[in-house]
Specification:
Oligomer: single chain
Structural class: mainly alpha
Shape: flat
Largest sheet: none
Mean pLDDT: 80
Order of helices and strands: HHHHHHHHHHHHHH
Distance between the termini: 53 Å
Low-confidence stretches: 71-75
Length: about 325
């Protein structure tokens, strides 16, 4: 135990701390340079994986529809996580419907994912609190400070799963949003060439995989749902629910109106594609306009000291040499 404490105290020395920070920065720099070469995505392989996933989803949904037609309830997930959820009534405690929607937006759709997330939300405050208490004892802080750290760890553990899930959903939505305009252009070309909406979505789901794999996956699932759902509009509405994006909801509305009233889909897709492209350009301009204020602090902290060292360093060295001679 004394060796561990002495090791941590040695890390807090300035020289060792700088060495660790430089090593971490070098590691992440190397990862940043090497990672693009290791991520050579084989699109044919991923397309096959998406096809397999689509067939699994189709078989699972058909089984659920068959059970519902026989008057059976949806089969509840089994396992340790599901037992914990039912025993502690976590669905009501942590608002399962809201969590389910967030999980869908992040790409986790099954009941097993929901049960795992609810259990993690139950356990994570305890884990973070124990970790904070252990660190407080390790560094020998006072009892009152240990209680404060314990409460802070529990609070951090309570919010950490939601923060992680929100970040996952945002990352996925950003990928879908950036590629959605291109997908609409491809859908427009396919529809105007005479394809049905099912064939167009299936074709675009393969072609758009190089730009956004999450969007390709969502379109694959929509294509699968169109092939077996009794209400075709339900497949489009499911797409809007899974993504949670307003621009996709507007396109889904056009799809639903086309299904109900037989309105031409080509002109609606043309207008929506242009609107999405304009929105994407406006978002890029907004980010570009916000860039100078964000760069002010990094320039002051990192660039100006280096400039001052380069400009004033030789003069200071000469002054020091002259002072040492006298």
């Amino acid at each position: 135990m004394d060796m561990i404490v002495s090791f941590f105290y040695s890390l807090l020395e300035i020289r060792n701390l700088l060495t660790v920070i430089i090593a971490i920065l070098v590691f992440f720099t190397a990862i940043t340079i090497i990672l693009p070469f290791l991520e050579g995505e084989d699109m044919k392989k991923k397309a096959r994986q998406l096809t397999v996933e689509r067939e699994k989803l189709r078989a699972r949904q058909r089984a659920e529809l068959l059970q519902q037609s026989k008057g059976k309830l949806r089969e509840k997930p089994k396992g340790l996580m599901a037992d914990i959820v039912e025993r502690f009534n976590l669905r009501k405690l942590f608002e399962a419907e809201s969590a389910r929607q967030n999980l869908r937006n992040a790409g986790y759709r099954s009941e097993r994912h929901l049960a795992t997330f609810l259990v993690v939300r139950l356990v994570s405050p305890l884990i973070f609190a124990v970790g904070a208490f252990f660190l407080s004892r390790l560094y020998g802080v006072s009892s009152n400070m240990s209680l404060v750290l314990l409460a802070a760890g529990a609070g951090l553990g309570y919010f950490a799963p939601n923060v992680y899930l929100t970040n996952q959903a945002k990352h996925r939505q950003d990928s879908i949003r950036l590629a959605w305009s291109d997908a609409l252009d491809l859908l427009l070309i396919c529809v105007e060439s005479g394809m049905s909406i099912e064939q167009a979505i299936a074709k675009v789901s393969i072609e758009i995989a190089s730009a956004s794999l999450p969007l390709s996956e969502e379109l694959q699932l929509t294509s699968a749902e169109l092939s077996y759902l009794g209400e075709r509009t339900q497949a489009f509405e499911n797409l809007a629910k899974r993504t949670g994006l307003s621009n996709i909801k507007s396109v889904v509305t056009a799809f639903v109106q086309s299904e109900h009233y037989g309105t031409p889909l080509g002109q609606a897709l043309r207008v929506l594609a242009q609107e999405n492209r304009d929105d994407r350009m406006a978002l890029a301009e907004k980010k570009a306009a916000a860039l100078p204020p964000k760069l002010t602090v990094p320039m002051i902290v990192f660039f100006l000291p280096s400039i001052f060292i380069v400009l004033l360093g030789p003069s200071l060295i000469q002054v020091a040499d002259v002072t040492s001679l006298h």
